[in-house]
UniProtKB/TrEMBL annotation:
Residues 142-238 form the AtuA-like ferredoxin-fold domain. It comes from Absidia glauca. InterPro entries: AtuA-like_ferredoxin_dom, AtuA_N. Residues 4-97 form the Acyclic terpene utilisation N-terminal domain. This is Uncharacterized protein. PANTHER family: PTHR47708, SI:CH73-132F6.5.
């Protein structure tokens, strides 16, 4: 209503997260009562004046709103920076070397180097990771975190999640349960309109999942509390299940 009276458009994006309430888990959040959370509110508007109005409205919401709400200062209005990665021909780049007070600029003939040098014969192909295709009657469900480690990160608006089996004997069952479609279904609340592609790393008994359009724009342009997808591996391994024979279930519950 305030924007409308001043002839301003609505927000381009508005994001609310309850940090401490498993907001990143989305529909997979466990039901529990948190006695303390951090409410994180972020927004995007093309007009800085609109964001200044929004920032001023936060203080009254806390001082005159519901009880038991703390406040730690006015929000800051910042430009929403978006990065655009691109490929540049190597021949268009120059290398500058500074030795002491002398500065030397040289253009490296990349094309000549690429043409005259080879990297030898490629290594022989590695067999694909084993896949369990036996009967499912004797299988039990185990959290992925008990069978695998995870690590995740970002490249722009793309997140990749690495899953590494804790023991090679778990690999066929992880391969069977943690498929592209299974990960796409589990992460659809974060990977909105994007795709999921799985790559195998046979030498490591590992898988790499690449999720596009998964970070709300990625980098400093994202409104998410996890704009680099650093928590995505933990979301995956702590929530997804793997079916494997009961005699292979680890004796203790893994936490990391």
């Amino acid at each position: 209503m305030i924007f409308k009276r001043r002839g301003l458009d609505d927000f381009k994006a508005f994001h609310v997260e309850a940090v401490g309430g498993e907001s990143l888990y989305g529909p997979h959040a466990s039901a529990h009562e948190s006695r303390e959370i951090l409410l994180r509110v972020s927004a995007h508007h093309d007009d800085p004046a609109a964001m200044a109005i929004f920032a001023r409205e936060i203080n009254p919401m806390v001082t005159s709103g519901a009880p038991a709400m703390g406040f730690y200062g006015l929000p800051t209005v910042l430009p929403n920076m978006v990065h655009f990665p691109a490929l540049i021909p190597k021949t268009d780049t120059q290398t500058t070397m500074i030795v002491g007070k002398a500065e030397l600029t040289r253009t490296i003939p990349w094309d000549a180097w690429d043409t005259q040098h080879t990297f030898g014969q490629p290594p022989p192909p590695v067999p694909p990771l084993p896949l369990y295709d036996g009967p499912s009657t004797n299988l039990v469900k185990v959290p992925l975190i008990q069978l695998a480690y995870g690590r995740s990160g970002d490249k722009g608006d793309v997140s990749n999640i690495g899953i590494i089996a804790r023991d090679p004997q778990y690999t066929p069952f992880i391969n069977r349960s943690i498929t592209e479609q299974a990960v796409a279904d589990y992460m659809q609340h974060l990977c909105k309109g994007g795709t999921v592609k799985r790559y195998e790393l046979p030498g490591l008994n590992a898988f790499n999942f690449v999720l596009t359009k998964a970070l709300g724009g990625g980098g400093i342009s994202s409104l998410s509390v996890d704009r680099q997808g650093k928590t995505y591996a933990q979301l995956l391994i702590s929530g997804m299940m793997v079916e494997l024979p009961g005699d292979l279930v680890p004796p203790s519950e893994a936490k990391l």
